[in-house]
């Protein structure tokens, strides 16, 4: 593939924060990729480059224009991996602090989109072929109640998720999940009153008991065969000096473990993401031993889509599933490596958006291409989230027919 032109520009994410968009052109063909941004970011994530004000992306864009684009324009690349190798060698740091993982990822994703478009394959199929994975349609992980860092800690856990799919078509599961989400709006209004929406578009009620969010969701999904319940505890955000604190309650590792065990039994949870803090590997190991036969224990901050860390965490059996977030690491080459290591260890994958999103639907293709068990894309109240679901429904038609 020959790249004729590379352009980087600024656009705003779903929080109104600047982010980066890269356009690559080859002949008449042009593709665009933009990158999301997290709020409850893990300490092991690659560096997101921001200007001195902590917001702008002018420095990151300048870095691409000065150090990367002159090496792309007018050049030919056999595979998108070659672009990733170039990005990694120019950056030259272990944490991507020179170019910034955000700047690198925009180029990496645009390179893959361009290669896929030139090959004539749908993007998900190209990703499957190129990463060595077997494509499959994922379950939908729709975050319907936002708590934690995404909603001023109005509810104890960061995300209460309706899991849809597994037995029906994606289109059908999506419809069922959206209807349950609307119904949940009525239940929340009845129990708590009018509430704002959180960063990922779900309701953000002030819940003063641990059980209330679970009860409200169970009320709208019970009897709906295709719908289940999961959480992202994002426990790194509530961990301080050996204790996990929600509202007025503090728990040590053993107490939190017992709490999860009770919640799983009472509310029939099918997966728990980041149940313990990113450095509390012992907590992860214990919950995986205790509950991992029945439910998914999902690493997010724990694994940070980093091949070296994933390798260490699979060796120590710290979980049985992990989140795939490309902007945690910065190149798709490394995303495929991390995903491959996890899959080889028998782990499930859940591809994920970030709380600050754009309308780029890339993670939909990534989820299918890598054969992920699930895909997290938020609530259907923001176009940035709906764009992912729309693309998944489109992919399902390409996949099945
Ligand atoms: P973030 O949260 O995008 O704000 O980091 C998402 C998550 O923890 O899964
Ligand atoms: Zn998470």
The backbone outline, from C-alpha atoms, is globular
* Hetero groups: 2-phosphoglycolic acid, zinc ion
Query: How many helical stretches?
Result: 12
The major beta sheet can be summarized as: 8 strands, mixed, barrel
Number of domains: 2
Percentage of helical residues? Answer: 40-55%
Helix and strand element order: EEEEHEHHHEEHHEEEEHEHEHEHEHEH
Strand proportion: 15-25%
Rg computed from alpha carbons, rounded to a whole number of angstroms: 20 Å
| Strand ordering within the main sheet | 6-7-8-12-13-14-15-16
| Integer average pLDDT | 97
Instruction: Identify the CATH homologous superfamily of the largest domain.
Output: Enolase-like C-terminal domain
Query: Unreliable runs, pLDDT <50, ≥5 residues?
Result: none
Number of strands: 16
Kindly identify the CATH topology of the largest domain.
Answer: TIM Barrel
Give the C-level CATH assignment of the largest domain.
Alpha Beta
Distance between the termini: 29 Å
Name of the CATH architecture of the largest domain: Alpha-Beta Barrel
Structural class: alpha/beta
């Amino acid at each position: 593939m020959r790249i004729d032109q590379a352009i980087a520009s600024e656009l705003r994410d779903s929080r109104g924060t600047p982010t980066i968009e890269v356009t690559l052109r080859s002949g008449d063909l042009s593709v665009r990729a933009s990158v999301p941004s997290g709020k409850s970011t893990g300490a092991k994530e690659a560096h997101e480059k921001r200007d001195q004000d902590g917001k702008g992306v002018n420095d990151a864009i300048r870095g691409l224009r000065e150090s990367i684009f002159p090496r792309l324009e007018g050049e030919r690349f056999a595979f998108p991996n070659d672009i990733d190798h170039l990005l990694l060698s120019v950056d030259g740091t272990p944490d991507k602090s020179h170019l910034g993982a955000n700047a690198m990822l925009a180029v990496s994703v645009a390179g893959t989109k361009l290669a896929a478009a030139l090959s004539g394959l749908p993007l998900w199929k190209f990703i499957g072929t190129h990463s060595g994975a077997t494509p499959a349609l994922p379950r939908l992980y729709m975050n319907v109640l936002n708590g934690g860092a995404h909603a001023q800690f109005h509810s104890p856990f960061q995300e209460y998720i309706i899991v849809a799919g597994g037995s029906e078509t994606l289109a059908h599961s999506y419809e069922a999940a959206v209807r349950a989400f609307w119904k949940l709006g009525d239940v929340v209004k009845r129990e708590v009153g009018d509430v704002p929406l959180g960063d990922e578009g779900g309701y953000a009620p002030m819940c003063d008991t641990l059980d209330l969010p679970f009860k409200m969701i169970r009320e709208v999904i019970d009897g709906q065969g295709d719908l289940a319940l999961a959480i992202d505890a994002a426990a790194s955000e509530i961990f301080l000096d050996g204790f996990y604190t929600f509202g007025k309650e503090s728990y040590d590792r053993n107490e939190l473990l017992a709490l999860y065990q009770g919640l799983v039994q009472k509310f029939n949870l099918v997966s728990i993401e980041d149940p313990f803090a990113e450095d509390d590997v012992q907590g992860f190991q214990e919950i995986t031993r205790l509950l991992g036969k029945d439910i998914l224990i999902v690493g997010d901050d724990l694994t940070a889509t980093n091949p070296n860390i994933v390798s260490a965490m699979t060796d120590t059996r710290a979980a049985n599933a992990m989140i795939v977030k490309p902007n945690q690491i910065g190149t798709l080459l490394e995303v495929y490596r991390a995903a491959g290591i996890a899959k080889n260890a028998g782990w499930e994958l859940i591809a994920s958006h970030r709380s600050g999103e754009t309308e780029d639907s890339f993670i939909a293709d990534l989820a299918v291409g890598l054969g992920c068990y699930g895909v997290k894309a938020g609530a259907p109240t923001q176009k940035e989230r709906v764009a992912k679901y729309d693309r998944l429904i489109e992919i399902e038609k390409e996949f099945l027919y």
